[in-house]
Design a protein that fits this description.
There is one protein chain. By secondary structure, this protein is an alpha+beta fold. It has 2 domains: about 80 residues, ACT domain (Alpha-Beta Plaits, 2-Layer Sandwich), CATH 3.30.70.260; about 70 residues, Alpha-Beta Plaits (2-Layer Sandwich), CATH 3.30.70. Helix content is about 25%, strand content about 40%. Strands 5, 6, 7, 8 and 9 form a 5-stranded antiparallel sheet that branches. Strands 2-3-1-4 form a 4-stranded antiparallel sheet, covered by helices on one side. A hairpin with a 5-residue loop joins strand 2 and strand 3.
Length: about 170
């Protein structure tokens, strides 16, 4: 059984309880949510949920069918990773010292990471990149003392095409 990763872009009514209903759908059916990000769209009455989940082909199909059955769901788009552009935002607070400060700053320069706050012994870094590059940064900083991490989860939009309908 081959596991596949799918990204679901789900437009929903922007009202209380909708997130709980969608999360409950995954929970009741034992579907795993790898990542979940929710925010208002350009219309304040509509939110977009970006859900990353994995499973076999049957599970992937079931998730999409179940999402489409929900009353609060307006539209479901399903993407494979190569069909869309993905980004994740992460803030990471690290402890540094005079011996590793230069190395951390060089890493930030190479990976296009911003230093957004700093004190005598701590730095807060910000990266907005693909989920893979975010994980890479965490791995690169394992030798440093990581104090705290906050991540948004994956956001995704279909790649641009000349025949886009603008929706």
């Amino acid at each position: 059984m081959k596991m596949k990763k799918r990204i679901y872009s789900v437009l929903v009514e922007n009202r209380s309880g909708v997130l709980c209903k969608v999360a409950g759908l995954f929970s009741r059916r034992c579907f795993n949510i790898d990542s979940l990000a929710v925010g208002e769209t350009f219309d304040a009455n509509v939110s977009c949920m970006t859900i990353v989940s994995s499973g076999d082909e049957r599970t992937i199909e079931q998730i999409e069918k179940q999402l489409n059955k929900k009353l609060d769901v307006i539209k479901v788009k399903t993407f494979e990773e190569q069909q869309c552009i993905t980004r994740e935002l992460m803030l990471i607070k690290i402890r540094y010292n005079k011996n590793n400060r230069r190395e951390i700053m060089e890493l930030c320069e190479i990976m296009k990471v911003d230093i957004v706050d700093m004190s005598k012994h701590f730095m807060m870094l910000q990266i907005c990149d693909t989920p893979e590059r975010v994980k890479l940064l965490i791995n690169m900083l394992q030798s440093v003392s990581i104090v705290e991490v906050a991540r948004t989860g994956t956001l995704a939009l279909a790649k641009c095409a000349e025949n886009d309908e603008g929706k």
